[in-house]
Specification:
Elements lengths: L2 E6 L4 E6 L18 E4 L12 H28 L5
Antiparallel strand pairs: 1-2, 1-3
């Protein structure tokens, strides 16, 4: 749930409130007066979880290499096998 900062014109103070995007704060949490609130615009912050790309890339390459080796061995085995009709 996002947080919003409101400024109260009555008591000239600011406070932070968590609520949904479609909701609005109606009364000041400090002076409890209604109708004098102005929402202060905020720049949204985006936090991206980063995973070590090098580690993922290395693991992917290792798995591909192992599967290529296994496939090569299976092809050799299939070529050397004698099939009867």
């Amino acid at each position: 749930m996002p947080f919003y900062i409101y400024n109260c014109k009555e008591c000239d103070s600011s406070f932070k409130v968590w609520h949904g995007m479609t909701e609005t704060q109606k009364e000041c949490v400090l002076c409890e007066k209604e109708g004098g609130l102005v929402r202060v615009p905020q720049i949204p912050s985006v936090v991206r979880a980063t995973i070590e790309d090098e580690k993922i890339g290395r693991l992917t390459e290792e798995c591909i290499g192992e599967n290529q080796q296994l496939l090569s061995e299976m092809k050799k085995e299939a070529r050397n096998q004698i099939y009867e009709d």
